[in-house]
Structure formats: C-alpha cells, structure tokens
## 1
Amino acid sequence: MMQALRGQVVRLALRGALTGKSAVHDVFGWFDGDGLFLASGPPAGRTREVLALIESGVLDLLGPELTIERDEASGRFVASSPISGRRESASVLVETRMSKGRVGSTSDPLLQSLLGRGAARLHAFSGVQGDGLDTSPADVDEASPSGHNLVAADGTADPSIVVLGIPASTTQPGSAIGATPGKPSPLLAGADVAAKQVLLRQH
C-alpha cells in the first residue's frame, strides 16, 4: 500500500501539482524517506537467489574495503581490495551502493566528484533546488532506446552515464521502490533499459 502511495505522490510532485517548496521539503524531505523505511527491503527469496549466483560462480565478490580507480592509459576501471589482495579491471563501471538519498550533502566520493566537476546537477522543482540528481526523462520499457542519462551543470545529458534508484528518485517516480509481484516495476524496467545501453557501448 505504501509503495503504491509513494509512487503516486512523487508523480504529483513532478507534474507540478505541489509547490516547489512542498515537493522538496515535504515529499522528498520526510514523506519519501518514511515510505522507504516502512515499505522497502529485499524479500528473503531474493537474498537466497543472490547467494545461489555467488555459489554458482555467476557473481564474484572481490573483497571488503573495495576501491575503484580509472586507468587513464587503458580507459578501464580497476577495482581492488586490500584485504583479499584481489584486483580486476573492466571497461564498464556499475555503481550499486546506495547513497543516503541526499545527494547535495552526501559523502560518497563518486557523487561528490560528479557534482564538483559539473558533470551532474541537482534537480529543481519550480526554482527550488532539491537533493536528488537530475536525469533525462525516459520511457522505461523494453522498447526504449535510452534510459535515464545524467544531466550536467550546463543542461546537457551524458549518454555514457545512466543513473537509477535513490539518488535520482526525484526524476524517476517509483525507481527507488522494490519490485512487487504481479505489478509493473519502474525500478526493473529502468534497469533493463540501462543494461541495454551498457551492452550497446560494449560493441
């Protein structure tokens, strides 16, 4: 019930039914966070599925205290763990750790870097600055050619960066809500579109 209510309230805010001040201070100030607290979290079955993927070798964990750097010479991302001593490189980085939802005051180094160098900007409601990343609109269905691309400080969208979930939930209604059996999921639909964009850049 709370999941359905959250989605509708956020859509009203994005369509201008509320003042910018109310959208920022009420909807995203306390209502959305309270809704996440009451109606979020993975079901036990999903946790068992992830463990099964790890045990079968489909998913691999590098180790704790993970750091990721970009190798400018090769253009690849290099991840390493000082605890396990493992090191891997890849051409695509998918950052899945959740920020606290308040991008403007986050300590996350990736988000801070994007904002600091003008590669990202905070979304604004009727001139009132919110606390979530601004992303381009997208029809999140399987036929969509592009997803939610990060909008830079100058207003341009970067097709190489796709943002989903809590940091951009102000521009993506329902994307921070877990999937509900038997109902369409904006979170999973957006992830499908993002996956297609990543795969296209690999070829």
## 2
Amino acid sequence: MKKVKLYIAASLDGFIARKDNTLDWLDALPNPDKTDYGYYAFYDSIDVVLMGRSTYEVIVGFDVDWPYPDAQTFVFSRATEVNITTPKTELINKDITTYVSQLKQQTGKDIWLAGGGQLVTAFLNASLIDEILVSIAPVILGEGIPLFANIPKETKLQLTDSQSFGSGMVNLSYKVLNN
C-alpha cells in the first residue's frame, strides 16, 4: 500500500509561506554547501503529488518549468473549474477521504502531499497522512500561512530521523501513530 507523505518546509514558527504566498525567506537562506536537503531522494520515492488549488496557482506563478513532470499531480479544490495548465495534472473536487484511500491502494511509489495548510489539516483530520517530513528553516516570520491551518486534531508522532545542516536547516521525519 502506498503511503501519503507530507514533505514541506516551514519557518521555526510554523509558517509555510508569507501571507502573500511568497517564499522569499526560504530562497534567501544561505546554502554554502548547495545541498538539496534530501529533496531529490524524496522525489525519487514518489509518483503522485497532491496539492490544494492555492498551492498549485502559486507554483504555476513562479514562471518556471513545472517541477513535477514525472509525477501524476492532483489538485484538490471545492471549485469545479480551475485553469489546469500543466502536464499530468488533474482537478479533484470529490470527497478527499474516499479519493485518497483509493489512491493509496494503487501500485507504485508513495504519494507526496505538497500543501497547502488547509489541505494538510484536512488530510491530518481525516487520518490520511502516514509520514511527516518537515524541513525547519532558521527563520521566524511572525505571520504567514500556517503549516496546519484551521484546527488540526491532536495527532501523536514518532520521530524516525533528524538531520541538521550547516545552513541551520533541520529535517525532521515522523511516523504518524494514530491513523
């Protein structure tokens, strides 16, 4: 069975982006070793990417090549019409629990839950996340888009790995225990 893995970067105070969806704070972090913080190994382990409509629109707005060309991407939205312009990308406005449970039954690699905060909380509250891999950036933003928007349910985690980098970035990997 496929696992749903939340893989995301956040500020030390738990924000995944500024209020205007910008990530300048993440791009501005020094990275003298030019490390990818485990991204490429993670990307090789998945074949499906899940994200909310706002996250999709922000990524498309970066004006770069679509960063997930080898993965099937599903964009979740309550809206029935979203301008999907990227390859292997499909709009989903069905029940999240039923749809993702079916995805997990398929063969292949694991599933990446890429964001945003509202979708992350919906997945967490529906017990759909199996692992959480978060890169904590050494910055406090004070405000922005929270990693867990709205009200997440209490969820017990088991730390499975941690790694720190000279840049101050820390990767934390957790298994979700109460699914």
## 3
Amino acid sequence: MKISGNEIRVGNIINYQGKLWAVTKTQHVQPGKGGAYMQAEMKSLVEGTKLNERFRSAESVERVYLDEMPHQFLYAEGDDLVFMDQETFEQISISRDFVGDSAIFLQDGMIVNLSMYEGRPISVQLPDTVIVEIVDAEPVVKGQTASSSFKPATLANGQRVMVPPHIGSGVRIVVNTADATYVERAKN
C-alpha cells in the first residue's frame, strides 16, 4: 500500500530502496524556507543497520504489512533451528545467527512469533520471559547486606546472569529474554 511521506508513523514497516525498514522515530519539520518534510529514523529488519531519511509529502513509499504467525520450536540441528507452523504443521529451518543471542533461551515446544514477508521469515520474537533453572551460583559473602548487591549465577542453558544473594543452585527463576536479566523467582 502506497502512503505519502507525511503519513509515515513510528512502528510502520516500509519498503525503501529495495529493503524492509522499521520506522523507529519520526519528526515533522517545517523549515522557514522550503517545503515541510518528515524526518524518519529507520532500522533495517534484515541487517539491523540504521538510516535517517527525509520524506516530502509529495513522495510516496510502500507500506508493508508483515504476517505474524505462531510457530513452535522443535529442535536444533547443527547451526539451524527448526520451527513448526501451528496451523499448517509445515516445518521451517532458520539459522541460529538469524535468531541472535536470544536463541539460547529457546526451549523444546516453546511458541514464538515469526514475522513473515512474502513467505520469508523476517524476525523471530520469543516470549518476553522464560523460566530457567540455576545450576551454579556463587555463595553469599557474609556481611554483604546491601540490597542492591547481586552475584553471578549460571543457568541450565549456560547463560550467566546476576541474581540476588538469596537465590542459590537448583532454584528456578524468570529471566527476561531481551537482555538476559533476572526478573523474579519462579512460582512453583
């Protein structure tokens, strides 16, 4: 769908210069001399690069709608991760590098959202939080009573996180998948 340059909004996905871009910031600029324009900051959905571009109201760009489809994570096969469409039961193999650092939090049977464009995966979105067990935690240092003190711990998937002093080995915790940080102790 074509939209004019002044209709671009934050969150839009646009096809510009043959690539897909997510609009992260917009600012309508009306200089004293010359016509008004929309200043847009965009991030490439494939490469992750950023671009600042000016769009005049007379220009038109192609707005793209992505298909969000729930997929179930099945297994890892070498450097590839295999997902299954929840409606058609078709399997799709995606490179671990494409998923990024959050791939370490994938668990068997986990439901993720795949954003698809023309049948091609653009991004994989994991749940905001996952529950993981701690396999190794450093002992508490006596006398360390500051409430903001944290200690390193190793999760069952090998990821290291900082946890409060009262959390020990064998405890299940909730971890934020976006930045691999401790959220809370899991309720059993």
